[in-house]
Amino acid sequence: MSAQTNLEPLLIDETLLPFPDVAERLGVPVTKVHDYIGAKKLVHYVQDGKKVVPARLLGEDGLSKFVSGAITVLSDGGYDADEILAFLFTPDESLPGRPVDALHGQKAREVIRRAQAMAF
């Protein structure tokens, strides 16, 4: 069973945005979204053959520096996009909650610390 299959239940209730919608939310051209993906500042998920980004990865005022930081650290540690999404969207009782939610709040640095420990 692949990580892709495991992501479906984790992302079932998430708003999944196609790249043009991500670009609109961030106020950038679609090509910049591709740049963010390529630079490992954002990750996408393939749903029904279409590339989408969970809206929760985005900050209120653009790209979240903590989300991007966690993605970069995990990616540098050898994690692929599906594994990164699985980490971010899997509830963790010790936080409590999901790492992606903690990255938008008081526990952001703790999630980054855990990502660094996992990656190396």
TrEMBL record:
Residues 11-58 form the DNA-binding protein Rv2175c wHTH domain. One of its GO terms (molecular function) is DNA binding. Residues 66-119 form the Rv2175c C-terminal domain. This is Rv2175c C-terminal domain-containing protein. It comes from Corynebacterium afermentans.
